[in-house]
Structures are given as structure tokens and as C-alpha cells.
Amino acid sequence: MVRGVAIMPKYLIVLKEKSDLTFLNDYDISNIEVHLDVIVFGSMTKDESHRLANHKMIESIEEDGGDSVDAVDYKTHETSYGFDMMGIGKFHDEGLTGQGMKVAILDTGIQKHTNLKIEGGINVYDSSKAWNENLANVHGTTVAGILNAQGKDGGLLGIIPDAKLYCVRIDDGTGPINTTTWSSQIAGISWAVENSMDAVNCSFSSRIDSKARKTAFKIASDAGIAIFCSAGNNQPSGDTTSNTSRYPAKYPFTYANANIRSDKTRYPSSCIGHGLNFSNGGVRARTTTASKFSTDVSSAHANSTGTSLASPSTLGIFILYKQKYGENKDKIIQRMVVNAERLGDPYWYGAGLPKYPTKNYLNVQVRG
Fold first, then answer.
1. Which end of the chain is more exposed for a tag (fewer CB within 10 A), N or C?
2. Using DSSP, how many helices (H) and how many strands (E) does the chain show?
3. Alpha carbon of 342 to those of 9, 237, 279, 337, 339: distances in Å?
4. What are the backbone angles phi and psi of residue 113, rounded to the nearest 5°?
5. Residue among 241, 258, 273 at smallest CA distance from 306
6. Among 128, 110, 129, which residue's Cα sits nearest to residue 120?
7. pLDDT higher than 50, residue 98
């Protein structure tokens, strides 16, 4: 259950010498961590810290703080409305931009781009071609920009520009995203497990499921990978009741994302149904795109629409939560649910819009 209590500040405690820490049980301290045998981190009230400071084993005690860094002023860059609605700038102000996190995009490949920084990739559909060779679709490049746009020259900035982003190409190179095969998806998710990805984006969908793919995705989830999926853009015009959410978004171990406008209302084509987890901005979202496929490097940007853009937006804030808290994916999703802005019926919106955390959580149960 969530309790409306303030998060207690963290204190840094230095012991006079290595010691049995059972004496700390006499104080109201939570989230205790021990480092280098004589440094203890703990959350407590200021009054309790003053009481603890008088103990004979305490060398010093101080509230956690930080140093300023000579960082980029992210506020001078162009951002998407999903970026702004989620409060991503608050993470960036704390120096959290995805450093040390590994993310894979299972998609149509990513064109090299002046405003992207791709760590590497693989073509699991056709190993004879590179992940960025002979592309026939802009889809993967648009997904990448939501996460990875570098803000070059004050331009578009992604949610996690400093995460290590990998391209896992899963299409047959003919154009439409629907030409991806289940076997390439399985090969792609297998690569993600073998290479210890923190999260994977899957902006593709189908009405039909595969038992083999479901098994592969479950293995990846059990390995600790957070799998974010687009709910689909197939809701019939005027139909606000039919459950049309698609696979792999429908799996109980993936995180399905619906599409909302900048006023936080549902976009009509966004699929609805049981199992939606979050909603995010994907209506004319500003992002990178491929230019002419014959060129080696693109510098183009465009506005794109679809749950395909909502999904990486939610993945991006998940990565920032993980960087901030250092917890496993289930606990991070719990925090995201608790802090999400409720937008309406979960059948349309899931838990709502994920946002910068302002609430703590206790024993929250998340149900699909």
C-alpha cells in the first residue's frame, strides 16, 4: 500500500572503526547500506541523526549532498512533448541521462545519423548485411531518436542520450515493419539476453501469437530485461470498447504502451484493452528520421505518430528510474505505477503517464 509520507533524507555515517553494526538497531534508520566496512548510508530524520551523532562509535554524520558538474544545459535543446510531460528535465538536472545503461531496439535497422550515437548492432534476419545497410524503412531511425537524440547544436534531445543504444535489425529489408519474422524476433531477444541489455523496445505487433516467441520473451523477462512494446495502432474508428491490444504487448511480462496527445487524451487509433501498462506521447512526436536511403548519414528530423513512439518514451523513463534507484525491473515498474499520472479508464490508458518520481511506495502489487 502507498502511504502519503515524505521520503526521509539519506545520511552518510563514518564509523571510528570497523564494528558490529547491531547498535544501529537502537535507532530509527531505514535503507541501510555498508561500504568499505566503515561507511554507512541510512535514511532517517534530522532529529534521529542528531541522536545518533552522540554514539561513541560515530566519527561523523552528514546529510547526503552533491557537487556541481560542468554539464550541458539541457534546457536549451528542443525536446518532444512526451519528454516534457514526463518531467525528464528533472532527471537530467540530477545528471541522470542513461549513463551505464544498455538498451536494444528490435526494429527495421537504424540509419547512421548526425544526431544519434549508436553503440553498435546486429542484423539477425540476414547476417550478411549490416544493421544499417540497404535500409528500406525509416521506422527504426524514428524510434531511436526518442531515446538517443544527442541535442547537437541545440537540436533535438532524447530521453537517455548517454545510454548505450544497440540496433537489432529484425526485418527482411523490403520495407514494412510487418515483414519481421518471429524467428528474427526470437534471435533478437536472444542476442539481448546474451549481451545483458537492461531494456528492449519492440515497436511491432500482430493479432497472432507464437508460442516460441512467447517462450523466448518470457526467458528474457526472467533474465531481468524490461521489454517495452507498442500496443498497436489498429483501433477501429469510433470503437472505444473492443479489446484490440496486440502481441507481444499482450504478454503479462511485457509493458504495453498506448498513445496520447499533448493534452493527455487518447489518440483514436491507439489500441485499447486489458493489459495496457502506460500511456505516452506519440502524436506528431519530434524525432530523427532517415533521409535518402542511398546516403550514408542522415541529418533529417520529422514528426511521427503512433504507439511506436509511445513505447520508447516509456522505456526511456524506465532507464532513468533504474539509474536513479538501482533496483530490479519489477520494483522500478512499481515505482513508475505509483508515480504515474492517472488519465482515465485503465482499459484505455493503463496506469497512465509515467512521470518523475515524487512518491515513495510500499508493497505495491502490479497486475496486468
1. N
2. 9, 15
3. 27, 24, 10, 9, 9
4. -145, 145
5. 258
6. 110
7. yes
Buried b (16+ CB within 10 A) or exposed e, 222-240: eeebbbbbbbbbbbeeeee
Burial class of 183 by CB neighbour count within 10 A (0 to 12, 13 to 18, 19+)? middle
C-alpha cell at position 184:
528474427
What span, in angstroms and rounded, lies between the C-alpha atoms of 201 and 349? 19
CA distance 100 to 299: 26
d(CA 317, CA 315) in angstroms, rounded, equals: 6
Within 13 Å and on the Cβ side, how many CA atoms surround 29? 24
Phi, psi of 2 (to 5 degrees): -90, 130
| Paired residues of 227 in beta bridges | 200
Q: Is the pLDDT of residue 159 over 60?
A: yes
19-65 pLDDT per residue, tens: 888 999 999 999 887 754 766 878 999 999 999 999 999 988 877 63
b vs e for 5-35, b when ≥16 Cβ sit within 10 Å of the residue's Cβ?
eeebeebebebeeeeeeeebeeeebeeeeee
Distance CA 263, CA 271 (A): 18
Quickly name the fold that domain 74-349 has.
Answer: Rossmann fold (3.40.50)
**What nine digits make up the cell of 1?**
500500500
Beta-carbon-side half-sphere exposure of residue 318 (alpha carbons within 13 Å): 31
Above 50 in pLDDT, residue 76?
no
Residue ranges of the domains in the chain?
Answer: 10-63, 74-349
Q: Provide the 3-class DSSP secondary structure of residue 82.
A: helix
What pLDDT does residue 61 have?
82
Pair 324, 94: CB distance under 8 Å: yes
Are the C-beta atoms of residues 230 and 341 closer than 8 Å to each other? no
Question: Environment class of residue 175 by beta-carbon count within 10 Å: exposed (0-12), middle (13-18) or buried (19+)?
Answer: middle
- Per DSSP, 177 falls in state G
Length in residues, the chain: 368
The reported pTM is 0.77
Local structure of residue 266 (DSSP, 8 states): B
What is the pLDDT, as a whole number, of residue 175? 66
How far apart, in whole angstroms, are the C-alpha atoms of residue 110 and residue 133?
9
Report residue 89 as a C-alpha cell: 528535465
